[in-house]
Here is the input.
Amino acid sequence: MIPNITEAEERVMRALWGAEPMALGEVADRLRDAGWSSKTVKTLIDRLCEKGAVGVERWGRRNRYYALLEKDAFARKQIGSLVDRLFDGSPQDLLAFFCRTQELTPKQARELIEMLESGEEAP
Here is the structure.
């Protein structure tokens, strides 16, 4: 099951996704632009650990943190929620809205059509 993640917790996850396990200070450095103290980052990490989204390993005297929740799984849940809330569960309506409201280059439009026709995933 994919846990519910707050916007603040999502920022921590973004710092962890695709990275080697990191000490608290390293995570806080990646989130410097948020203006959070190390204590705030630690609180968010602790919540994510409780939710099963972040793992912790002992490294000497320090803990190192890593993502357990995969970014793709999180994105699927978020997109599914968006489709349900705004498009009555219709991915077709989401795609139609996207195509109407975004300025796609001809190349991007061709690639999108090719993906839809072939059933392949985006790169």
User: Anything to note?
Assistant: The beta strands are 22-23, 54-59, 62-67.
